[in-house]
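A note on notation is needed here, since sequence and fold are reported together in a single record. The reader may check this reading against the record printed directly beneath this paragraph.
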Amino acid sequence: MLEASNNSELPAIPTKRYFTIGEVSELCDVKPHVLRYWEQEFPTLKPVKRRGNRRYYQRHDVVLIRQIRSLLYEQGYTIGGARRKLADPTDEAEELNSDSQQVIKQTRAELEDLLQFLTR
């Protein structure tokens, strides 16, 4: 679902447990109001809400937002079409594969950064 060419435009997802809406906005290149709207349109997108209704997104939420962004902005799906595409069980293997590839690439980049730091 997320092709390598699309991922290269977006920054790597840091190894954190929770992300604020501002951080997710920058990581996914989407405005905060759009993220709030997508929460209403995509039932699987449910960030944790804490004090004062502040949203805290987890890693899987960020990956999902990137998938939604790719479907809407790059592949030309409508919101309804993107919702159906994400809900289609035949695409689960493709989603898992692209998610795994993204995690592997990010882990490799982090390990390379750590190696450079240690060799200084």
The longest strand covers residues 54-57. The first helix runs from residue 4 to 7. Strands lie at 19-20, 48-50, 54-57. Residues 44 and 72 are 16 Å apart (CA to CA).
